[in-house]
Amino acid sequence: MKEEKESIMHHLELRDVILMAGFGIIFAIVYLAVFNVGMGLSVALTTTGLGDFSFDIIYGVWFMAGTMAAYIIRKPGAGLIAEVLASVVELLMGNSGGIAVVITGLIQGLGTELGFAIFRYKRWDMASLSLASVLSGVFIYGYELYYLQYYMLPFGMHCGHLIIRSISGIVFSALIIKAVSDGLAKTGVLKNYAIGKTVKHAVVHEEEA
Questions:
Q1: Would 205 be classed as within a structural domain?
Q2: pLDDT tens by residue, 61-110
Q3: Does 149 reside within a domain?
Q4: Of 144, 76, 72, nearest in space to 110 by CA
Q5: How confident is the model at residue 129 (pLDDT cuts 50, 70, 90)?
Q6: What is the pTM for the complete model shown?
């Protein structure tokens, strides 16, 4: 009976889907804007010889939809679905990457899911968020070895890309996501989600007339 109850609790509900769709729209806008930031960094860092790492510095932003959805909803599949939705919306909003954008979202989402699955979806803290973010970066880098022909790079470059990308993932998709999500939970707006049951809400007293 207990296992059956846990299985039911893990099913995504309508409110979960609505929240993930909202994240898909919000983060698609963010992803498109951050791409332009990356282009600017690339130009700025070219003269320093670090231009190849410009996008790695902000790469963690592209994992935020998945980690935030997973951290708030705390059910299997939430991170993957949110990341794919964000990539689909991003494509529809004008990303010129074509179907590769959606493939990227799928791969990143799988990395996110694995990070939480390793803890059997029972640990929701900086450790699981950080692991999910790092694995998202590792997964997509594996794809880029083929898609962007990174396999031709020297070993030192691989190390540089992975280290910088992992740090970026932890900063944007773990530290920032946890702070923002916990802050929202404390206001009570996420009280109907799993995170709302673990964070104390701020109590607001109405003034007596």
A1: no
A2: 999 999 999 999 999 999 999 999 999 999 999 888 889 999 999 999 99
A3: yes
A4: 76
A5: very high
A6: 0.89
Q: 111 with 67: CB under 8 angstroms?
A: no
| Pairwise CA distance, residues 64 & 179, whole Å | 12
CA atoms 60, 66, 69, 74: torsion sign: negative
Count structural domains, the chain: 1
Cα–Cα distance, 66 to 61 (Å, whole number)? 10
Query: Cα(160)–Cα(95) distance, rounded to whole angstroms?
Result: 27
Q: With contact defined as beta carbons under 8 Å apart, do 77 and 109 qualify?
A: no
Instruction: Quote the domain boundaries for residue 120.
Output: 2-197
Does residue 151 lie within any of the structural domains?
A: yes
Q: Residue 206: which region, alpha, beta or left (left: phi > 0; alpha: psi -120 to 50)? A: beta
| Residue range 161-168: mean pLDDT, rounded | 97
Q: Which two tokens stand for residue 59?
A: 């790469």
C-alpha span between 65 and 84 (Å, rounded): 9
